[in-house]
Amino acid sequence: MKLAPPLHRRVIFKLRGMDPLDSTILRQDEGGYWIRGGTLAPQLDQSNCSLPDNDVRYLEFTRIEWLRAARRRS
After folding, report:
1. In this structure, are strands 64-69 and 10-15 parallel, antiparallel, or unpaired?
2. DSSP label at 22?
């Protein structure tokens, strides 16, 4: 069973060697996710950026240990 990607949702990512951080998944392709904002985007390499001075970054699947939906704020 293949799960649908959690597009346009805030997600908590645990990357290898890092504490869990949050970001919003914008799009998925065969190699990873395009994410925006949160605490994760500034931690990723600027070379994986869609535009200069933008908080949209590319995150490869191979870097992700786990991810889960963030809790919704009330």
Report:
1. antiparallel
2. E
Percentage of residues in the chain with pLDDT exceeding 90? Answer: 55
Local structure of residue 59 (DSSP, 8 states):
E
Q: Which residues, in sequence order, are CB contacts of 67 under 8 Å at separation 6+?
A: 6, 11, 12, 13, 14
Q: pTM score, two decimals?
A: 0.79
Between CA 66 and CA 41 the distance in angstroms is 16
- Is the separation of the CB atoms in 41 and 23 below 8 Å? yes
What 3-state DSSP class applies to 9? coil
* Under 8 Å between Cβ of 39 and 11: no
Nearest to 16 by CA among 44, 52, 53: 44
